[in-house]
Amino acid sequence: MKHVSILIPSGETSLSNIEAVYKMFSRVNDAMQRAGKPALFDIHLVGLAKETRLGNGIFTINPDQIVSEVTQTDLIIIPAVHGDISQILAANQSFLPWIVQHYQQGAEVVSLCIGAFILAATGLLNGKSCTTHWLMADEFKKMFPLVNLMPYRIVTDEAGIYTSGGAYSSLNLILYLVEKHAGRDLAILSSKVFEIDIDRSSQSPFIIFHRQKEHEDEAIRKAQEFIEHNFQEKITIDQLADMLAIGRRNLERRFKKATSNTVLEYMQRVKIEAAKMSLESSRENVNEVMYNVGYTDPKAFRTIFKKITGLSPVEYRNKYNKQMVA
Q: Please, is 112 exposed, middle or buried when counting C-beta atoms within 10 Å of its C-beta (0-12, 13-18, 19+)?
């Protein structure tokens, strides 16, 4: 039987994450026992104290074990946390060496959503891939530059470390773990019981492009604003460089440093975000939307749109435009 440690961090922690892991693993145990087999998971809530008050104190959880009582565990689950990240990490510092110790002893470690910040603070993610909620991607990159962040992924799996994307996409990672440890049949059963799309693999359709302007490079900010106000037009890098009186190579270097995108990528993201908004709210057909955001090649538009969102323009419109007739 696998000892499962669901951590109960101090501060504002996702109750839904904690309950979902507990319930889904418990239902797997029930199914195993109905089939005449032993339960698979020995599930424990593990905290830094015997009572943990969450958020503003409305909820209290009483872990059945504290970290000093756990001498061996097989699977560590870190739920999502919310609020000021530096305060969260400071309040949960005592978890970090404990997680590292048990990982080195063979335990697998799982972070759900923004719980990736606690996992990354251990250093175990350095040089490895992970994901987290796309809204926190920029902050994560700044805090943990040695981690290969993949913000479009729902699930990552590397060297016994698992991470999930934002919010309720953590359910997909829990299903992934059920399939790994209990088999495909029980994973499919769990997906049906809990009504989860078992094959969802990307956060891309849910990402809203926030223009990356949290930097101090005024010239690059002007370039961004020019792109955003003129995205329907054909803008060249040389045009931007001349406008700002900056050499092309210097512009490209500074733009990438400030926004984490190349100039071309930024132009594409702005155009596709405008296209997404049109596809969500208007009755224009795909070609009309394409021309309105400055594309003339349908194949290129479809390719870039799918690369950024994970869906074709038609699939995106059918999924998110409530005005469309079924």
A: buried
**CATH superfamily name and code, 2-206:** Class I glutamine amidotransferase (GATase) domain (3.40.50.880)
Lowest mean pLDDT among 18-22, 49-53, 296-300: 49-53
Q: What are phi and psi of 320, to 5 degrees?
A: -120, -5
Q: Which of 109-118, 205-214, 303-312 has the lowest mean pLDDT?
A: 205-214
Question: Across residues 239-266, what is the average pLDDT?
Answer: 91
Question: If you search the block for the tokens 């889904």, which residue do you land on?
Answer: 24
Burial of 189 (0-12, 13-18, 19+ CB in 10 A): middle
**What are the structure tokens assigned to 273, written together?**
């975000």
Strands 161-164 and 155-158: antiparallel
Place of tokens 């005005």: 323
- The reported pTM is 0.66
- Tell me the residue length of the chain: 326
CATH code of the region 218-320: 1.10.10.60
